Structures are given as C-alpha cells and as structure tokens.
Amino acid sequence: MAITTRCSRLCDLAAVDPAYRRHVQQLSGQPLAPPRATEPEPGQLPPLWKQAANLSAALVRHVAAGMPTTPTEIQAARLAICQACPRYQADSQRCGTCGCYVAVKAAWEQESCPEGRW
Predict the structure, then answer these.
(1) What would the pLDDT profile of 53-83 be if each residue is shown by its tens digit?
(2) How far apart are CA 14 and CA 16, in angstroms?
(3) 3-state secondary structure of 89
(4) Hey, which of 64, 102, 105, 116 has its CA 20 to 30 A from 82?
(5) Residue 88 parent element (H or E)
(6) Cα–Cα distance measured from residue 98 to residue 116, given in angstroms and rounded to the nearest whole number
(7) Where in the chain are the domains?
(8) CA 101, CA 87: separation in Å to the nearest integer?
C-alpha cells in the first residue's frame, strides 16, 4: 500500500510539475504518458483531498464571517442555478467542480459558485 501511494503521488507530481516530469523522463530514458487532467471528468467528483481542502477553506470563511446564512429566497435561486448546471451531481446533490453539497454552500452567505454562476 505504501509503495502504491508513493508512486501515485510521484506520478501526480510529474503530471503538474514540468521540471520534475523532464527529470523522470531523463532518468527512465522513456517518454511518460501524457499528464492526466486535473479537473474531474463530468459525472465525477474531485479527489477526496481536494474536497477536504475546499470544505476546510469554506468552513474557515464561514466561521470568520460570523456564520451568516443566506435568505431563503436567495438560497432557492442559488439551488435552481446549481441544478441547471452541467456539473451538478443530482444523485448526491453535490457540485462536480468543488465537491460541496450545494444546499450547504447555497446557505452560506459568503460562499460563491466555483463556476462563477452565482
């Protein structure tokens, strides 16, 4: 398990860092496969670590702002916009871009759509 995790992290690093990618190619003497997309495919959520980072940042902003909530009418409008978005995950009611539960994100006053829709 530890070897697989380490290899996965190094492969991820090679995907995002061009200098490290060149270094690995020089050491191996073989071209590497093209980097994987960093954005999740439609119908998929971001990696768990990214979801945790997004949630942590949103929670800090929410608490720092005094935990304000959005009026019900605005929440409903935000939810309607989310539900019409192609990145919306209807089965889990989550945003496919950030991984947040849209009902929670829409209720927190200082939050915004990661796609810039609201």
Answers:
(1) 999 999 999 999 999 999 999 999 999 999 9
(2) 6
(3) strand
(4) 64
(5) strand 88-89
(6) 12
(7) 1-38, 40-118
(8) 12
Neighbour tally for 53: CB within 10 Å: 14
**pLDDT > 70? residue 41:** no
User: 77: which 2 tokens?
Assistant: 């409008």
Tokens of residue 76, six digits = 């409903």
Provide φ and ψ at 7, rounded to 5°.
Answer: -60, -40
Report the C-alpha gap between 23 and 66 in whole angstroms. Answer: 47
Block residue for tokens 């991984």? 99
The pLDDT mean for the chain works out to 84
Helix spans in 1-118 (H):
2-16, 18-28, 48-64, 72-84, 102-107
